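Worked example

This section walks through a single chain of length 322. The input is the sequence exactly as stored; nothing has been trimmed or padded.
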Amino acid sequence: MSFPTFTAKTTATEVAETFAEQIKGKTVLVTGTSINGLGFATARAFAKYAGLVVITGRSSSKLKESEEALQAEFPQANVRPLVLDLASRASVRKAAAEVNAYAEPLHILINNAIAPIGPFVLNEDNLESQFSLDHVSPFLFTKLLAPKLLASTTPNFVPRVIFVSSAGHLRVPGLDWDVLAHPDPAKHDAAVAYCQAKVANVLAAKELTKRSNGKIQSFSLHPGTIATGENPVTVESLIAIGIYTADGKPNLEAPVGWKSRDEGAATTVAAAIDPRLEGKGGAYLVDSVIADDQVSAFASDSANATRLWDLTEELIGEKFTF
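Given that input, the structure is written out below as tokens.
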């Protein structure tokens, strides 16, 4: 069977339509699905065809808003809300236990939620909040759901885990290992913290595929640059690096390839379901196709992936076994 070649303008809706047969009957869990974000656009693309779409958010009211919007557009869709606050390990464990109790299998996990770019915050686990919410909590959530993911394996399907990263990972030389383990407000730079978390996402996808011996295919990706109504502190950081103008609007002259939310979610949907990616776990996607040539040297180094995995296990105090 031949499928179309995707481009920067391909939408998530189009990708899902292309692979409607592959999506049919699948359970897809997407973290961070507030109505103006990429996660919602991702869930929306899957909702029309999937067996079950699980949407998550910290706030029950915002989660309800997303659920109602999906049900209004796709009355036949099977959408299930799940309260998940990635800032709290207790919430991560509670949400994972809830998913593990579902009668349905879990085929695809999309780690999409991110922390707002902002000032230094030490969270309840004594970790810097950006790194913790963008990497450590998704790592723990994935670990807790791995047995359920593996149980969905069939001769024709290998479960997938997606980490939504960013080209921002190219803006830093690598990870400051000491600061990750021992956060220091004096060394905090909001944009750098975000970019380091995105490096971690790329490395996590590589190492998850490797450690599972390919039994879980994991991918990272750059969705493109999308205006999703960020909070004021995030906008401030984006102004500082020139992606937004001084008046807090998207800088359409910045060479960053602006996309709509539907276009931005396309790469996530492709990573999650495109059968042409089978056996290529660990790859990094841009514009819905593999773009490993756009990964930084640091994030391409398997030794760094191993070191990050080991450090993350130390931080959560648990081994991730298969």
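What to look for: Strands lie at 27-30, 52-57, 79-83, 108-111, 160-164, 217-222, 284-286, 289-290.
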